[in-house]
């Protein structure tokens, strides 16, 4: 573990051989201790076999955040037979080794989540919100440690870790703590059909069951929380698989949740290699899968889910475009593009990866972008003043290098001073490329690195056409002072989030902004009320008071009912005053007088207009 990390290694767990209870630190005491702790099922024996019965005990220990290297299932730390080594990408040194589970261990996590589901689903929403509130307090108190661990594991500067991971995670917790009861409440919806106007009807939001959440390494706190928090507060239970490159950060989230009072089995985090992930897709108790990752793996996830007709939400790759109009504010545009292209060392699915600039402003904008890029400081992510840390792993750096080599080999030019540094770590300098063409990998594929290709275009028509010429559609941006041009760009750029004078990636920090794309960028949306629909079953419920002996449409299908339908159809759906041409025919049927509620009909006559 890097010595600069203000995080303490965990002590070895103690075993109480009488009660078969596993705890951290001092012996457990039942009830509230006044300190930090978590609930644990006493049915968890050391051999993992269930006890005949179970009770809950409160486990208390020092609240200082620790590095956890075991999966967390049923609020217990569960070692596995394998290993995942967490490497600091700035130094190449080992931070810690997670004792990863095999497929059997993942199955146990799913079964624990399923066992916890009925009670958790029946827990009042307010009770779930209270736990989120305590989790938020822990997250805020431990923000520095969370950012330090994340920085050490995947390389983003600590300041940036706070900005783009910890703050969005806190915003997600605060939003759902504050709004979950309102967003999950029964939503009355008066029927539009005139014949149903006497119903009491609306939408009911119900939990789905066990949600599998497979998360990436590039935002190892923010992205998991976007899925985990609404899933939990909606009454689902969760099994989360953090990415191997940020496994310690993922386990830390589950530890925070149990210290906040999350009941056993409700939120489980499993350290597993990719080979054991299949259980999270194939287990019959899994109700839905939320996956964030590459297009290639996303297709496999979708195919596996399709075999079971298992719903899945996929947030995949991007090759985001920015369109710069001739009247764009120069300094604002240069600053915004440099940040959106190089933030997180370009390792964002919604980074700016293509910039189309109208020729009137091209030369001036490129010069300013190059100047700003050359001012960026690449270095130790744990130090203040670092703008870009290393890439997360050696494989990602190889992809970036191959894309640069392809572009330079086909005639592109690099305008910045970047040279790959010698020595340890997976560092790569930010680069601005010009004279790029559409056949280059940097223009067609997701690079996921600190590159900004810039293209000169003749006019806005060409810029929009080329920006949309991509299989991806996650985020985009337009840069202009003109309201009319802004409205056109928002309308015509094909992406899930389009920003004006700010790139679409910034919308990921707004909890009410739906986040997701189309095409190869994935399926579904996260965030806010719209994202909530991904983790609930929306049930339509209606109630008839049962006052009548039969409804108008019940049997028999006699001649009188046939006349009733022929008269009712034009009255309900014909345009203009002609709809009333059959009113006397309708009034002449027994069905109308015996089964239609005249008082309700009169009260809802406005629906005819």
SSE topology:
Elements: E1 14-16, E2 21-23, E3 37-41, E4 56-60, E5 71-73, E6 76-78, E7 84-87, E8 94-98, H1 103-122, H2 125-141, H3 143-154, H4 158-184, E9 187-188, E10 200-207, E11 210-214, H5 222-233, E12 237-241, H6 247-259, E13 267-269, H7 278-282, E14 286-292, H8 295-308, E15 312-315, E16 320-324, H9 330-342, E17 352-358, H10 359-374, H11 394-409, E18 413-414, E19 431-434, H12 441-444, E20 451-457, H13 460-467, E21 475-479, H14 483-492, E22 497-500, E23 522-523, H15 528-532, E24 536-543, H16 559-573, H17 583-587, H18 590-595, H19 598-603
Parallel strand pairs: 11-12, 11-14, 12-13, 14-15, 16-17, 16-21, 17-20, 19-20, 21-22
Antiparallel strand pairs: 1-2, 3-4, 5-6, 7-8, 9-10, 10-24, 15-23, 18-19
What attributes does this structure have?
609 residues, alpha/beta, Aldehyde Dehydrogenase, Chain A, domain 1, Aldehyde Dehydrogenase, Chain A, domain 2, seven-stranded mixed sheet, six-stranded mixed sheet, 19 helices, disordered N terminus
Low-confidence stretches: 1-38, 41-64
Strand order of the largest sheet: 18-19-20-17-16-21-22
* Percent helix range: 25-40%
CATH homology superfamily name of the largest domain? Aldehyde Dehydrogenase, Chain A, domain 1
For the record, what CATH class of the largest domain applies?
Answer: Alpha Beta
Counting helices, strands and paired strands, the structural category is alpha/beta
Question: Main β-sheet: number of strands, strand sense, barrel status?
Answer: 7 strands, mixed
How many runs of DSSP E, i.e. beta strands? 24
Radius of gyration: 29 Å
Overall mean pLDDT stands at: 89
- CATH architecture annotation of the largest domain: 3-Layer(aba) Sandwich
Percent of residues in β-strands: 15-25%
Kindly identify the CATH topology of the largest domain: Aldehyde Dehydrogenase, Chain A, domain 1
Compute the number of structural domains. Answer: 3
How widely separated are the two ends? 72 Å
